[in-house]
Structures are given as C-alpha cells and as structure tokens.
Amino acid sequence: MTHHTLRPRLATRIITFLGALALAGGALAAPLKIGVVPGIFADSVEAAAKEAKKQGLDVQVVEFTDWATPNVALDAGDIDLNYYQNSNYLANAVRDKGFKITSVQPGILSYLGLYSLRHKSLADLPVGAKVAIGSDAVNLGRGLRLVQAAGLIKLRPDTGLLGKPSDIVDNPKKLQFVEVEGPQLVRVTPDVDLAVGYPYFILASKAFDATKGLAYTSYEDDSWAIQFVARTDKAADPRIAQFLNIYKNSDAVRKTIHAFYLNDQKLYRLAWLKN
C-alpha cells in the first residue's frame, strides 16, 4: 500500500519540476520587446536586433506613433524597453504620471532645428509670423529656448526647463506660437512661417531637407540624448544588458545612424561615446 502511494507523489513532483523547467525556459526564450518611434530609433534598434539574433537573443521591435503610449506600455509591462525620450521628458513623465521606469543607457542625441519652407532666413520672418512648436511641457520649453538662442525672443531669466509662451518678455516680431504634438510638426511645417523640427522625423518622412535648418540646438548637453528606458524592477534583466552592450558597440548600428543623418554632425551625436 505504501509502495503505491509513493509513486503518484513522485510522479507529481517530476511533472511539477518539468513544468517549472518549461516555464523557466519559456521566460528565457521570451523576446525582448522594445518600443520605438519611426525613424532612426526604430532603424538602429532593428540593426542591433539582427546582431542580437546571432547571439541567441530574440528582439521584437514595436513602433508607436505618439509620445504618450510607449511609457504607458512600458509601465504596464507590455514592452521591456522603450527608446524615444530624453532624460528631461522622462523625469517629467515620472513626476506627472508616477511611472516606475528608469533610464538604463543613453543613445542618440538628436538636435532640434528651426525650419521654414516660406522664408530663407530668420531675418525674413514677418511681424506676426506663426511658429509651430511642440505641445508637451518639456519640448515646448526646449523649443522656446531654441527660438531664444536664434535671437527671436527673450525669456524671463529664471525660466526653467518647462518654459511657456507666457515666459516670453521680449518678442519684437510678435511671433504667434502654435502648439502641435511633436510627431506632427513635420506635417504642419508648410502651413506656418517657422517650425521647431525634429530632424529624425523629417529625415524619416522625407518631407523636406533636414539639413537646411535655420538654427539647431547643438549647444545642448547629454540630458537631451534619447534614452533606453526600462521598468525600474526589470532594469537588471540580463537580456536588457546584453542588448544594450550590442547596441553601443555595434558597427552596424553606427553605420545605420550615420547614414540616416547623412553624416551631418549638426543634426546629432552619439551620447554614449565620450568626445
């Protein structure tokens, strides 16, 4: 009797153990899901994903067309990493939304530019010119600082990162600011006198020449570099460490980035490389 009761228990233990092994194997084999926006962030991650595949790491690239959803998806655990935001945007999102997410590695620093399809120089801007600018708090402030650096406006001296049009204290051309969601700025550029533009969106859309900006944010520090961001509780995932090591050391990734930006250093720099 004792002999018969032990065997089912042993069988149950073996089945449970094998099941645990299968679950562990499934977890190890799960693809690393990385959320990106179209353009060079997607392209460079795809290039790294091909190399990762050769090393046994499966990477799934998930494209988003807006700047809100990638953080929501990451915080919810639907993706493992995202790659589309700078440190200042990330800090603001964490503060406003309470996301439990953190930067794990810097990537490309893509500068902002000022673009006009109506005027050949900033001096040609008429009084009352319409200027399209990013609508989210961080990129609104970033865009206003670029307009100030170009000599078109002056902001209050104590204006921080989150500057607003109400912080303008001198506006000799009486510029009118039109706030637009960042990814849509390239589309509205023909409809305004001047637009703050993101070269990576312009290059991806081929809408106009991204190298013909009238001013750029080449003065910015590395806090404006696009970051690889993970959930705080998953930041130590060895799959993430493996992928990031591939990305920052890959010749294929660098060639993809340089080709995308037409090797024009006024548009970008690689923030993980120390000059």
What structural class should be given to the helix and strand makeup? alpha/beta
Identify the CATH class of the largest domain: Alpha Beta
Gyration radius, rounded: 24 Å
CATH architecture of the largest domain: 3-Layer(aba) Sandwich
The major sheet is characterized as: 5 strands, mixed
Can you count the helices?
9
User: Based on CA inertia axes, which overall geometry fits?
Assistant: globular
Query: CATH superfamily of the largest domain, please?
Result: Periplasmic binding protein-like II
| Distance N to C terminus | 77 Å
Instruction: Give me the strand/helix succession.
Output: HEHEHEHEEEEHEEEHEHEEHHE
Domain module tally: 2
- Proportion of residues in extended strands: 15-25%
Give the beta-strand count: 14
Reported by name, the CATH topology of the largest domain is: D-Maltodextrin-Binding Protein, domain 2
Helix content: 25-40%
Strand order of the largest sheet: 2-1-3-13-4
Low-confidence stretches: 1-27
List keywords for this structure.
275 residues; alpha/beta; D-Maltodextrin-Binding Protein, domain 2; five-stranded mixed beta sheet; 9 helices; 21% strand; globular; disordered N terminus
Q: Can you offer a commentary on this structure?
A:
- This protein is of the alpha/beta class.
- The protein has two domains: 31-109 and 222-270, D-Maltodextrin-Binding Protein, domain 2, CATH 3.40.190.10; 113-216, Periplasmic binding protein-like II (D-Maltodextrin-Binding Protein, domain 2, 3-Layer(aba) Sandwich), CATH 3.40.190.
- It has helices at 2-29, 40-54, 69-76, 87-97, 137-149, 185-188, 199-205, 238-249, 251-260; strands at residues 32-36, 59-63, 81-86, 101-106, 108-110, 113-115, 130-134, 154-155, 168-170, 176-180, 194-197, 215-216, 226-231, 268-270.
- The strands form four sheets. A five-stranded mixed beta sheet has the order 2-1-3-13-4, with helices on both faces. It has a five-stranded mixed beta sheet with strand order 10-7-11-6-12. It has a two-stranded antiparallel sheet with strand order 5-14.
- Helix 2 links the parallel strand 1 and strand 2 (59-63).
